[in-house]
Design brief:
Layout: H1 33-56, H2 61-105, H3 112-119, E1 123-125, E2 131-133, E3 136-137, H4 138-148, E4 172-173, H5 175-180, H6 183-191, E5 195-196
Length: 197
C-alpha cells in the first residue's frame, strides 16, 4: 500500500507508481527555446552583414575575400612588371657603365671601340658599381689586351726612339679605308705610323 509520503505514488491511482522515464509534455504557455535561438542568430547575422556591407561595400565575407584575392593577383602582376622594368634599366645601366669604363681605359688604343667590343662581354658590374673584367680592374685588363695584341695599341715613343716619324701628317686614311684592310695590312699601317682620320 502506498505511503502518503511516497513520491512515486500516483494521486489518482494510489496503488500505481509513476513512470519516471516518460517525458513531461510541455504546457500550452511554454515557448520553443531552440526556435528563439535560431531566430536571434538569424537577426544577428543580418545585422552583421548590414554593418559589413556598410564598412566594406561587400554584402558578405565571401565576396570580400574573393575581391581581396583578385586584388592581390593584380598587385602581384604589377610587382612582376615593375621588377621586369627594374631589370631592364639595371641592364642598361650596367652596359653604359662598362662602355664608359672601357673607353676611359682605352686611351692607348688605336680604336677604343674595338677594345670595348672585345672586352665588354667579359665585364661585370658589382654592387658598388665597380666594373671588373675577369676579376681585374678595367685598366689592367685593357693593358693586358694591348700587350697581347700590340697592333691595337698606338705607337709609343718620341722622335729618335725608333718610332716612325710622321712630320707632314703623311700616311692618313679614313676609318672606312682602315676597316677594309686585312689584319696584317692594319698592323703594317699602324707600325708605319699611319693615322686614322
Amino acid at each position: 500500500m502506498a505511503d502518503d509520503t511516497d513520491q512515486n505514488a500516483n494521486p489518482e491511482n494510489p496503488g500505481a507508481a509513476t513512470d519516471k522515464t516518460q517525458p513531461a509534455t510541455p504546457a500550452a504557455g511554454t515557448v520553443d527555446v531552440q526556435a528563439q535561438i535560431n531566430e536571434a542568430l538569424t537577426k544577428q547575422q543580418e545585422q552583421f552583414n548590414a554593418q559589413f556591407k556598410e564598412a566594406t561595400g561587400h554584402p558578405d565575407l565571401k565576396t570580400f575575400t574573393e575581391a581581396q584575392l583578385q586584388q592581390q593577383g593584380k598587385l602581384q602582376e604589377l610587382a612582376d612588371s615593375r621588377k621586369a622594368g627594374e631589370e631592364k634599366y639595371k641592364s642598361k645601366f650596367e652596359q653604359a657603365a662598362i662602355g664608359i669604363a672601357l673607353m676611359a681605359a682605352s686611351s692607348e688604343a688605336l680604336d677604343p671601340e674595338i677594345i670595348k667590343d672585345l672586352l665588354s662581354g667579359k665585364a661585370v658590374v658589382d654592387d658598388k658599381d665597380n666594373v671588373t673584367i675577369d676579376g681585374k680592374p678595367v685598366a689592367e685588363a685593357v693593358q693586358k689586351l694591348l700587350e697581347d695584341r700590340p697592333y691595337l695599341a698606338k705607337a709609343q715613343g718620341g722622335p729618335g726612339s725608333g718610332a716612325p716619324q710622321n712630320p707632314s701628317g703623311g700616311n692618313q686614311i679614313t676609318r672606312a679605308e682602315f676597316e677594309k684592310l686585312d689584319h696584317p695590312g692594319r698592323a703594317k699601317f699602324i707600325q708605319a705610323g699611319g693615322k686614322i682620320i
